[in-house]
Design a protein that fits this description.
Helices cover 40% and strands 21% of the residues. Helix 2 (82-87) links the parallel strand 4 (74-79) and strand 5 (92-101). Helix 6 (152-161) crosses helix 8. It is an alpha/beta fold. It has helices spanning 21-34, 82-87, 108-111, 120-128, 139-145, 152-161, 170-180, 185-207; strands spanning 9-16, 39-45, 53-60, 74-79, 92-101, 134-137. The protein is globular. It has one domain: 3-Layer(aba) Sandwich (Pyruvate-ferredoxin Oxidoreductase, domain 3), CATH 3.40.920.10. The chain contains eight helices and six strands; from the N terminus they run βαβββαβααβαααα. The chain has a six-stranded mixed beta sheet with strand order 2-3-1-4-5-6.
């Protein structure tokens, strides 16, 4: 018997420690709460250190019960690091979207010469076997143009807001940013700017899919 979800949107956010993955997930969850939507969030950590693997599941919708996305049921994978995106590619639907940050961060095992980091071309080829809807951007470069490399995650979130059928509004996402960074006006303003930059970039990126 085939089970069909009538009202849910599932997101996987993957990357490494230090890229603001949990902050992004919290902003998404807060936005859903502002819109009075049911939302669950669960994070799974790898190495408990900077650049260790981190993956977060965010589920939105009235049909959502548990916090974890079933394999093959994610509508969207946001990969803040290419290899970590590849690690979780089987989580998305065959027609799901991938937002891929091209900022490569080799793990300690690579810098120590134990492992070899794959070529970006090979990563992209492997991802494309699952879906053709891959939105590629070097968010680090864009974040540095805005003056802070930590804005990579918010730029990618701006792109997510521009996807077809993404269930949250930009206006409420900005309200969520205000809540998450309450009392830090400079951080709030920077993140709002990064969010709008991501949305602006998305117009070109999505048109080229």
């Amino acid at each position: 018997m085939f089970w069909l979800a009538l009202d849910e949107y599932n997101i996987i956010i993957s990357g490494v420690g230090g890229l603001g993955i949990l902050t992004m997930a919290r902003i998404i969850a807060e936005t859903a709460l502002i819109e009075e939507k049911n939302v669950t969030m669960s994070e799974i950590h790898g190495l408990s250190q900077r650049y260790g693997m981190v993956v977060t599941h965010v589920r939105i919708g009235s049909d959502v019960m548990g916090p974890l996305v079933k394999e093959g049921f994610a509508d969207l994978l946001i990969g803040l690091e290419p290899v970590e995106a590849l690690r979780h590619i089987e989580m998305i639907k065959d027609d799901g979207y991938v937002i891929l940050n091209l900022n490569m961060i080799p793990p300690p095992t690579v810098t120590l010469g134990i492992d070899i980091y794959p070529r970006l071309e090979d990563i992209l080829n492997a991802l494309s076997k699952k879906t053709s809807k891959i939105v590629k951007i070097n968010a680090l470069e864009k974040a540095e143009e805005l003056g802070n490399p930590l804005l990579q995650n918010t730029i990618l979130l701006g792109i997510a807001l521009s996807l077809p059928n993404f269930p949250l509004s930009p206006e409420n996402c900005e309200k969520a940013i205000e809540k998450v960074f309450a009392g830090r006006e400079d951080v709030i303003n920077l993140n709002k700017k990064a969010l709008r930059e991501g949305m602006s970039i998305a117009k070109t990126l999505l048109a080229n899919l």
